[in-house]
Design goal:
The chain has 243 residues and is an alpha/beta fold. It contains 8 helices and 12 strands. It is globular. It binds zinc ion.
């Protein structure tokens, strides 16, 4: 089975459109989305509708939960700009978008693969960016393949017997899945690894291979819409540099 994996779209419709076109060209069997459909970006309803139509499985992320004002997940967890965008998004969500997001879970399992918005230890909030968090992920669950989003950084960790290794990965990186692996496809709509292009991941689960992809999109169109809608300017500015 071949699966395309995307995450952290954050209301960025131009980025999602180019990623979905690239995914379509690959003709995967399934499309998996790891959450954070909304928050930061100016098209939360359009992005949610498109993901709902195209993804076979979709998780909910911390930004989705905050936009829903879901119990126990507060806007006070965010920095001031993210909080302002979250409150803007909360006002913007249509009943239809809200109803769909409310059905989603932050974790799922498919064909021996564990999918989490953030991490197995804390599917909503924990960032897996270093060895301690990665080791915690491998200890918490037994899946040979773990997929996470949330950090907006494309990366891989490998646990081969007792040896843990891992790093940030660039566009076009291909991996053979020969041990236990934790992979983050990077972010579609707000990359934070210095590459402003939209990220996603192509998995061949039978052939045990993974390929990290990046694709250019019209950053200016998203920035213009964000500024026009009065979203915090630094959130628009950062899209140009991918940080
Ligand atoms: Zn996110």
């Amino acid at each position: 089975m071949r699966a395309a994996v995307l995450s952290d779209i954050h209301g960025n419709l131009p980025a999602l459109e180019v990623v979905l076109a690239a995914i379509e060209a690959e003709r995967p069997d399934v499309v998996w989305c790891l959450g954070d459909l909304v928050g930061y970006g100016p098209w939360p309803n359009e992005v949610t509708a498109l993901v709902r139509e195209r993804a076979d499985l979709c998780l909910v992320g911390n930004h989705d939960l905050v936009a829903l004002d879901a119990a126990g997940v507060g806007v006070e967890e965010f920095n001031p700009e993210a909080a302002a965008a979250a409150l803007w998004t909360r006002d913007e969500l249509t009943p239809d978008t809200r109803a769909f997001l409310e059905t989603l879970s932050p974790q799922a399992s498919r064909d021996g693969t564990g999918l989490y918005h953030a991490s197995p230890r804390d599917p909503v909030w924990e960032y897996v960016l270093g060895g301690e968090a990665a080791a915690g992920a491998f200890e918490t669950v037994s899946d040979s393949l773990i997929l996470v989003g949330h950090s907006h950084v494309a990366l891989e960790f490998t646990l081969d017997e007792e040896r843990l290794s891992g790093d940030v990965v660039g566009a076009g990186t291909e991996l053979e899945l020969t041990a236990r692996h934790l992979l983050n496809p990077g972010s579609v709509g707000q990359p934070r690894d210095g590459d402003p292009r939209a990220g996603w991941l192509m998995l061949d689960l039978d052939g045990r291979r993974a390929r990290f992809e990046r694709v250019e999109y019209d950053v200016r169109r998203t920035q213009d819409e964000m500024r026009g809608r009065g979203l915090p300017r630094p959130l628009a500015d950062r899209l140009a540099v991918g940080l």
